[in-house]
Amino acid sequence: MAVDPVIVDEESKILVAPLQFLMNWARGHSMWPLTFGTACCAIEMMTVGSARYDTERYGIFFRNSPRQADCMIIAGTINLKIAPRVKLLYEQMSLPKYVIAMGSCAVSGGPFADGYNVVQGVDQIIPVDIYVPGCPPRPEALMNALLMVMERNSAGELSAAEVFAAEHRALGVSE
Length: 175
Ligand code: SF4
Hints:
The structure is a single chain. The chain is of the alpha/beta class and 175 residues long. 35% of the residues lie in helices and 11% in strands. The protein has six helices and five strands. β3, α3 (83-92) and β4 form a beta-alpha-beta unit. The longest helix has 16 residues, at 139-154. The protein is globular and about 65 Å long. It starts with 5 loop residues before the first strand and ends with a helix. It binds iron/sulfur cluster. Iron/sulfur cluster (SF4) binds at residues 39-41, 76-77, 103-105, 110-111, 135-136.
């Protein structure tokens, strides 16, 4: 939900902001992606974590535990064997959480879409916020996706996971 602060006094720069505004602001300036990759796109994701891109200046810190992460970057092919593990890691992350499908394998199965063992897009098993096309996408494309998620957070938009959970509640389905 988008909430604007109220400027009480221009001269003394007093700003009164609802808690929701401050929460949106914090969510929009912090993103902790899970260190997790399943195929060659992960090499590009690792490059984003390198000094060249300096993601820390945006508040982006890669984490090793799903319990500390709020963003899952699906970097690589998802086959039927690893799909339950991907879902388990996703479920171990607490809300609000975000998913970026990086590369054509994660988006739609990519060059292996005809394979008997390949999931045809990670959105078949978990809700996705941003799709990044390419085989592989450049690190700049992933950076752009991370910044897009953070911008949406600042604007107070719900993540795909929150929309999914709200729809399930409305339908009376247990999560
Ligand atoms: S999209 Fe291309 S680079 Fe990325 S995991 Fe699939 S085959 Fe590898």
